Amino acid sequence: MSINTGTRWGTVVSVYLGGVLAASGLGQVAAVLPLMQNGLGVSLAAMGWAVSVITVTSAVAGVAGGVWVQRLGARRALLAGLATMAVAAAGGALTDHYGTLLATRVVAGVGYLLVVVSGPALLVRHTHERNRTTALAVWSTFVPIGIALSSFVGGLIGPGIGWPAWFLVCAAATAAVAVLVAVAVPAGARQTAETGTTEKATPGRWLTRPVLLALGFCAVSSISVALSVLLPAFLIEQRELPLWTAGTINAVVSLVSVPGSLLAGWLLRRGVGYAWLALGSVVLPAAALFAFSSASWPVNAVAAGVMSLVNGVLIAGVFAVVPVLAGDGRRMDLVNGLITQFGSIGALLGPPVLTRTASWGWEIVPLVVAVIVLPGGALVWAAVRRPRRPRPAPAPALAEER
């Protein structure tokens, strides 16, 4: 047995890059959506499913994924997940049939599940307690960073090389990061002890607050992913902006969530309660009124940026509180799987629901955002309304990984 009392920053960075490349798969279709819609001859709503179906495996089997990661080992799960996503992206490039494309996206979803469940577990294992909140807050930015990366690069090179070649670029990049992870993340360790938190849950009741948190995260995730699909479509259709310009704006808006996540980490380190972060959900519907209004595109973009910023705060708060609610290190994979499952349900349903809403009229979108996110924010608040802060403790004990 050995105790890791330091933080392996090289490992942290490589794990984070693995998450970013996995999340770029969420934006892989959205980045070239008009090209694929025309090439495949399908509707905007159908393309919404092509964007979000990557999360179907996580939506169905997130908790089971936590068990898989626990048995396989987090490092092996992360590598397997990245490899699966690379193969699926390459397979998608070889088809021109919508149904087959959806099948490759479901396969990519298996890889995505393995990455998003194993990533936080590796971060907890390889960080000192004093750095853990920061590392998890940064991890929470992997989705917007990944979407921004794919939106910008796909919007830039997609029209020139075509969407099949764009898929091959994504496959190559994911495979390259898998090699980096294999080199930078040390093998031979599996978490077997406490996370370092001191929360003691009542037997049979400890899951109540994680379930509430997961349900709230479902609503938040649905808006976060749907925004990356709706905004470029809105700017192209209503503001007549070219694909590259709309993709660049979408990338910048996605990146705005990063300072939101860092702000959340900063506030939490200074003793602000988790419940206060949940109150930010009331801002989202108000910002949506301007993001999808008849105002000029700069106003639309700024309002969408506000939505992204608030989403960053909310998502970072969710990831940061997971170790506190899990309490026992052996529960981390299970709670991560639960959060992943419900977050993926939101990511799966959000784009098609809101793209369908947009087909009835863009002015309806803010109302639907309010209907989704306000109850979600209330659930997050209920889960963390009596925040419990972890006391300093050693990092988890490590044992040899099978």
Topology:
Layout: E1 2-3, H1 9-27, H2 33-40, H3 44-52, H4 56-72, H5 74-93, H6 98-125, H7 129-139, H8 142-161, H9 163-184, E2 190-191, H10 208-238, H11 243-269, H12 274-278, H13 283-291, H14 297-326, H15 332-360, H16 365-384, E3 397-399
Antiparallel strand pairs: 1-3, 2-3
Alpha-carbon Rg, integer: 20 Å
Shape designation: globular
Q: Give the helix tally.
A: 16
In whole angstroms, how far apart are the ends? Answer: 14 Å
Low-confidence stretches: 189-204, 387-402
Q: Spell the H/E element sequence.
A: EHHHHHHHHHEHHHHHHHE
> Overall mean pLDDT score?
81
Strand order of the largest sheet: 1-3-2
Counting DSSP E segments of at least 2 residues, the number of strands comes to: 3
Oligomer: single chain
Q: What would you call the structural class?
A: mainly alpha
Range of strand content: under 5%
Biggest sheet details: 3 strands, antiparallel
What helical percentage do the residues reach?
over 70%
Task: Tell me what the structure shows.
The protein is 76% helix and 2% strand. It is mostly helical. Helix 10 runs antiparallel to helix 16. The C terminus is likely disordered.
